[in-house]
Amino acid sequence: MRDNLYVTLILLLAPLSLASIGGATGIYAPLQHETVDVLGWVTTREFIDLFAVSRLTPGPSSMLAPLIAWKVAGLSGAVVAMLALYLPSSLLCYGVARVWEAHRGKPWHRACEAGLAPVAAGLVFAGVLALLRIAGSGPLTWLTVALVAGLLTWRPKLHPLPLLGAGALLFLAARAFWS
Amino acid sequence: MARKTKISLGALFSVFFRIGLQSFGGGLVSWIYREVVTARSWMSDEEFLSGLSLCQILPGVNSTNAAIFVGQRLRGAAGAAAALTGLLLGPFGAILLAGLTYKTLLGTPGFPALVEGVGAVAMGLLARLGLQASRGIRPGLAPALAAAAVFIGVGLLQWPMLAVVAAVAPLSIAAAWPRAAANA
Asked: Which residue of A46, A104, A129, A171 has the lowest C-beta tally within 10 Å?
């Protein structure tokens, strides 16, 4: 029974690991469908609660999956989930990075480096927009994003941690006044 | 791009361990850029950004892919393993702790506002990386056009990312080719 749980976890998360192109945001929908509707491991309410909690903890937001695994299968389940979620994509990325590194210095490699850098810039901005859409954000969120980006452009050495604290306080104050 | 000193595995691990523990609200890629390029100059802008675009195209979480890429570039297989475990160890502990206390956390007044505020700042950090990335790329029309096309296609129009990149990347690389070949 318990072994089956681990196998289910691996069968659920390993494909998600390799299917999540463009970051973790793509795994939420399939993760919710499988864990709530198909497997019945958590209720919709629990899923939303765990999602909220995972957003306040540091690290990749995909940590939600090990959190759910921990709830249904304990510590060993969480470890299995971590491996299933991160190992397949990491091995693939390592392989690509190795090939990439082996050709360093060749003209085509330099052309790729110069040509791919602006693609990354466009993707980062697109990612910010995607997050703004998911967060269902109001004017205060937009203002904070602009303020933080501006502040760090002006003072690049500022540490982000105090900014995160200030942002939390700002939203606490704003919500206390307006609701 | 010869580095003067070899970066130790311990240093790699501890830098990524700190990133993992401090990166509240997501946006880890901006933290990695800050620590690896801005603060330590372990890599050039272009080196990091081109690697980052590979990490974004490949399946998997962008931040873990970026850790693998940076670790591999600096110290090979051991470096990739050190960076990845460093990045994930702290958050794994944190999420278990949060799992134990989440009922209390959710009952705390102001918790949703806290999540929102931290998330907004993290998005600001990412936006700043985008700005920095746009400045780090070579001046010229082609890179600016490529960045704008990707943003419009993926961000505004929400077209499939792989298709947009498959269309834009070859053109952008072709535009950079004469210069890269001339520098050989």
From this structure: A104
A21 Cβ contact partners less than 8 Å away, ≥ 6 residues apart: B57, B58, B59, B161, B162
Backbone angles phi, psi at A104, to 5 degrees: -55, 135
The C-alpha atoms of residue B33 and residue B30 are separated, in whole angstroms, by 5
In angstroms, rounded to a whole number, what is the distance separating the alpha carbons of residues A89 and A83? 10
Residues of chain A above pLDDT 90, percent: 46
**What is the chain B residue with the closest CA to A91?**
B68
Q: Name residues 96-155 of chain B within 8 A of A (Cβ).
A: 96-99, 102, 105-106, 110-134, 136-138, 142-144, 146-151, 154-155
Q: What is the pLDDT of residues A82-132, one digit of tens each?
A: 999 999 999 999 999 999 989 988 888 889 888 988 998 898 888 888 878
Residue A9 near residue A81 (C-beta atoms within 8 A): yes
Please say if the pLDDT value at position A24 is more than 80: no
Tokens of residue A112, six digits: 């790729």
Residue B30 to residue B36: CA distance in whole angstroms: 10
State the smallest CA–CA distance between residue B131 and chain A in angstroms. 8
Q: How confident is the model at residue B1 (pLDDT cuts 50, 70, 90)?
A: very low
Q: Where are the alpha helices (DSSP H) in chain A?
A: 2-19, 28-32, 44-56, 64-102, 107-135, 139-154, 160-178
Domain locations along chain A: 1-102
- The residue of A57, A133, A147, A151 whose CB has the most chain B CBs within 10 angstroms, and thus the best one to mutate to test that interface, is A57
Over the stretch A43-73, which tens digit does the pLDDT of each residue have? 988 888 888 888 888 998 889 999 999 999 9
Distance set, CA A158 to CA A116, A147, B33, B69 (Å) = 28, 13, 14, 25
- CA dist., res. B26 & res. A56, Å (int): 9
